[in-house]
Design brief:
It is found in: Cell envelope. There is one protein chain. This protein is an alpha/beta fold. It is built from 13 helices and 12 strands. It is elongated and about 60 Å long.
């Protein structure tokens, strides 16, 4: 009996498919062991939530002289309390660098398993961090970076340059939306001698330049409400009109807002920095100059404690394929506005 051409083609196709399947099966059967294990590598970090060996985490940070710094210590302690396999050994916040160095030396002598250090001065504390690493104690360097990469196993901190960029992008978009031509843009920086302030200012300046804008007026405070109020008063007296203001820090912003209210000025909008709860509440209320804030989240200290635990337990991060904790982690500086403020209230800190 003759086979119709269409049926013959189907049979040939089916035979070809079966042949291909057989070849494929043969290839899979001969897959080298290292390729068979590739799928398992994706779980390199294991289950981070599962208890591991008990470890002692030493913690050192400067004195809690303003809200953001106090929140860093609060977050670290709270995270450690959630971890049943961790003993948390914090030191009292030092009033100066030499006191903090002595406290870290004490933790080294106690042979803690791992150190989390937010240095008052990264350069000044590099040597003691190097000694910890040389003693076999991994160091998690938080925010203010040590001078040598050998002084820490992992760094975690905020994106100061990115803060400036994101603040500039938001301000430029708001000015364009309001159709403001030749705007007067002011910047109230933090402590000018600090690299973090320099990076924030560079990001802001270069971010504005992308939009054909520039900083018209600039003053620098010192991350306190008192200096913020004093410098904002000087700025407002020198500038009869402003269109937008970026204040680097919400702690000094308490003083800045006091000066604004005392002067009765409301012709401009203001963007903050770091993300205090007081500023977020003002943004949500929507009844003043405060329009947004750019995060520099103290919750990074919670993450630092979690990373320290994994380092001491020789584990990686469960959502990453690598078997080790990464060398560095940079947090993101989200812009908090009235539209999304509810999403970020949980990380707002008290100024």
């Amino acid at each position: 009996m003759s086979v119709p051409e269409t049926t013959r083609r189907r049979l040939l196709f089916g035979s070809t498919a079966l042949g291909a399947s057989a070849v494929l099966s043969g290839c899979l059967a001969n897959t080298p062991p290292q390729q068979e294990n590739q799928a398992a590598v994706a779980a390199g970090g294991g289950d981070n939530a599962a208890p591991g060996k008990h470890v002692t985490i030493g913690f050192s940070a400067p004195a809690a002289d303003h809200g953001w710094m106090a929140a860093m210590t609060t977050y670290a302690r709270a995270q450690a309390e959630k971890l049943p396999d961790v003993t948390f050994r914090p030191t009292e916040g030092g009033s100066d660098v030499s006191q903090q160095i002595a406290q870290v030396e004490t933790l080294i002598n106690e042979k803690v398993d791992v150190l989390v250090v937010l240095p008052a001065d990264g350069k000044a504390m590099t040597d003691v961090a190097l000694r910890a690493m040389q003693a076999g104690i991994p160091v998690v360097n938080v925010d203010r970076v040590f001078d040598s990469p050998d002084a820490y196993r992992v760094w975690i901190g905020g994106d100061n340059y990115g803060m400036g960029i994101n603040a500039a992008d938001y301000i430029a978009a708001e000015l364009e939306r309001a159709n403001v031509a030749n705007p007067v843009i002011a910047e109230i920086a933090g402590t000018d001698s600090l690299p973090l302030t320099q990076e924030r200012s560079a990001g802001f300046r270069e971010g504005l330049a992308k939009h054909g804008l520039e900083v018209t007026r600039r003053v620098a405070a010192e991350f306190t409400a008192e200096t913020g109020e004093r410098q904002a008063t000087n700025l407002l007296q020198a500038a009869s009109h402003l269109d937008a203001v970026w204040n680097h820090d919400d702690d000094q912003g308490i003083g800045v807002l006091s000066a604004v209210e005392a002067a009765g000025r409301d012709e401009f909008f203001m963007v903050g920095g770091a993300g205090s709860r007081q500023v977020m509440d003002r943004i949500k209320a929507g009844n003043g100059v405060m329009r947004a804030t750019v995060l520099y989240n103290p919750s990074m200290c919670s993450s630092a404690v979690s990373l320290a635990r994994l380092l001491a337990q020789a584990r990686g991060m469960s959502d990453l394929a690598e078997h080790e904790v990464p060398r560095s982690v940079t947090t993101y500086s989200a812009v908090v506005t009235r539209d999304n403020v509810d999403q970020y209230l949980d990380v707002g800190f008290a100024s």
